[in-house]
Structures are given as structure tokens and as C-alpha cells.
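Q: Sequence in, structure out?
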Amino acid sequence: MTSYNRMERRRRGHACAAGRLAIGGVLLIGVFSQALGCASVAVPPAPKSVQRIVVLPPHTPGAGGAAPPTPPAGDLFNAPRLTLADVLAAAARLELVRQGFQVVDPITVDTALHGRGPTSTQMAAQMAREAQLNATAMFIDVRLWEPNNTGMRTDGVIVAMDVTLVDPQTGHVVWEVHRAPKPVPLYGVLLQGQADVFVAETVMREVLAPLGGKGPAT
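A: Exactly. Output:
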């Protein structure tokens, strides 16, 4: 009987040790995973050869983009029936100009592409090459654009997107950045159109910051 008790205590001791080891392993994996999740992936600046950029019509959810927003009066985006793609393209151009890049004007782009937009980097390169725009093509692929609602109030927009610069002659991607789904907070009460403009400007400043532009010429 005594021998049995000793064996039973030994068996329970092994089981407890195994349990502690398993729990420790899970905690270690959790800490490691959290560390990986928190680690930011550094995005290198664009090659020095990128001087002139054409912002192609962004690809937005639903292919046609969100419902046309109402632009705020007196804003640079004040134009009839702007789509989400229009707002994003305008925000991208403004940020590129702020960083000192040469940007193909939107009228030239619209005339050359007849209102069409790419759905992939390969298509972006082909369209820019065939249109002879003589510029590195920027392809903006919006994977998610969704209001973040708290009760009856929209306190942000969850945005996920990929932005790619592609050489139209070779089709090679020369720079890219991926924004994982996360909200852009909204402050105060904004109309849908105003919210889209604010979020577009905020996101473009964020994702294009690593480009490394020299700033506007003085």
C-alpha cells in the first residue's frame, strides 16, 4: 500500500510538472507572438530614380468605390459627385507634392485613361505605359474602408490598403507599403463626405511617409 502511494505521488508530481511546462510554453508562445505583432516592419524609402509619379485611379471596395461623399465647401476636393477613389487620389497627390515629387495632374490622367482604373499592379504598369505618361505609376488598392460604429455614432473608419509604385516599362514593383486593418479615429461630428476626406488625408500621410521625399522646392 505504501509503495502504491509513493507511485501515485510520483505520478501526480510528473503530471503537475508537465502541466506547468505546458502552461509556461503557452505563455512563452503568447509573449513571442505578441512581440512579433507589436514589431513594426520598416519600409525603405523609394529609389532615387522615382521623381515623377502618376497616381492612377485607386481600386476601392465594390469596384466602384463607396457612395459619393459630399465635399465640404471651400475645400480643394470641392467637386461634384466625388467618389472615394477621387478623394483618395487627391489626398495622395497632395501628399506627394508636399514631399517634393513631380505629380502628373489629374486632368491629364483622366484624359489618358478615359476614366478607367487598374485592379492590379500589372494592370497599373500596362495602363501607364500605354498612356505614355512618362512617370512611375502609383497603384492604391483599398482592401477595407468600413465605418467603426459605437452605438449610433461613427467614431472612426477602419482602413486597410496596399500602395505600390511600379515601373511602367518593366512592370517591376519599386516600392510598396501594406496597411493592416486598423481604425482612423474621427473627432467631432462630421458628414460622410467630410469624414472620407479627413480619413483619406490622414491615411495618405501615414502610408506615404516612408517614401522619403525631399520636401517642396523653395
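Strands lie at 52-55, 102-103, 136-150, 153-166, 173-185.
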